[in-house]
Structure prediction request, 138 residues.
Amino acid sequence: MAILSKPQSALITLSSWGTAAQQRIVPLAVATKDAAVTSVLYSKAVLDRYPPLKAFVLALAAFSAVPVAVFVGFGTATGAVVLGVAGTGAAMAQGTMLAVASFVLFWFLLGALFFAGLTAFWFSAGYFGLKVVRKLQQ
Prediction:
């Protein structure tokens, strides 16, 4: 058996470590993917079975998309500014800004929840009203 030079020895060690890590990570990733696909399929089935719930979920997503996008943009921008300027007080400065922004986001999401509930209420009233009318027609 020949003695390997240092760079070749390190390469073999890293390669075997990578292979071992891959053998542990791949089954975990596959199991996670399978669980996610199952969850999505189950969620779709539940939402298709209960149209008022589907209306609520879609309305909530629609009404909260812009506030959440603005919040993410604000967090990214303030993070970049704070990290660009800061040193010692970076975490406190961004934490304060995000706390204020979270307070504002809370009220927007509360409004989104209200409008989603209102939308789902009227959709449900129409949906169940239509079901009652169809039963009465039979």
Summary: Residues 90-137 form the longest helix (48 residues).
